[in-house]
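Hi F.,

I've been meaning to write this up properly since the lab meeting, where we talked about keeping a consistent format for the predictions we share between groups. The idea is simple: the sequence comes first, exactly as it goes in, then the structure tokens exactly as they come out, then a line or two of notes. No screenshots and no reformatting. I'm using this chain as the first example so we have something concrete to point to.
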Amino acid sequence: MSVSQLTPRTRTPDSYIALLEQLYHERNLTQFTAGHSIHLRRSEIYVICRGIVQLHTIHPDGSETLLGLAGPSMPFGLSLTGVSPYWATALTPVDVLPLSMAELENSPTLMAGLFAHLSRRLQQSEAWLALSGKRLVADRLRQLLIMLAQEFGQVETQGVKLTIRLTHHQLATTIGTTRVTVTRLLRDFRKEGWLTIHQRHLILPLSMVS
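Output, unedited:
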């Protein structure tokens, strides 16, 4: 699939994607199915045209830390991190456009567009780091879910639906707790009426997200 072949349902209205369509209409996108690991080259930066990519690292003991989630228009790649090892996995079906560092360095327009979305990634990373400052695990989980809803939520009549599905284990590693604790807290949140679950999607009240 090329950039210009994205269907209206999957195409983002973002102006940066429109710019990439214009410049690279003959270049094919690289497609990945959900759960597929994305091989990264240090000489390239990858821009997401559709879908969501999970960025994570794996520690020597085999445990995993979720570093962030990148959505449409967001860049990622080895040259943008100091973490090692650094893994990128398609959380949903994903289309990405690989861009060489040379292409970016030779195009002020591309660099300007990239900067705005690098800023989004930086804001997300700092917000995730700020979670650790909340003493109560329940507060960390609430704030994480609110952040995910703000970034990847879809407004519906019942509230804001998280369009992504993270496992209880992934949520736990992000906020520094156990899977069992996350499962218990989500059950407590449902009893409080703070969230509902429909077809395995978490739904938060609109007042919590806006």
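Notes:
Residues 2-13 have pLDDT under 50 and may be disordered.
The two ends are 35 Å apart (CA to CA).

If this format works for you, I'll send the rest the same way.

G.
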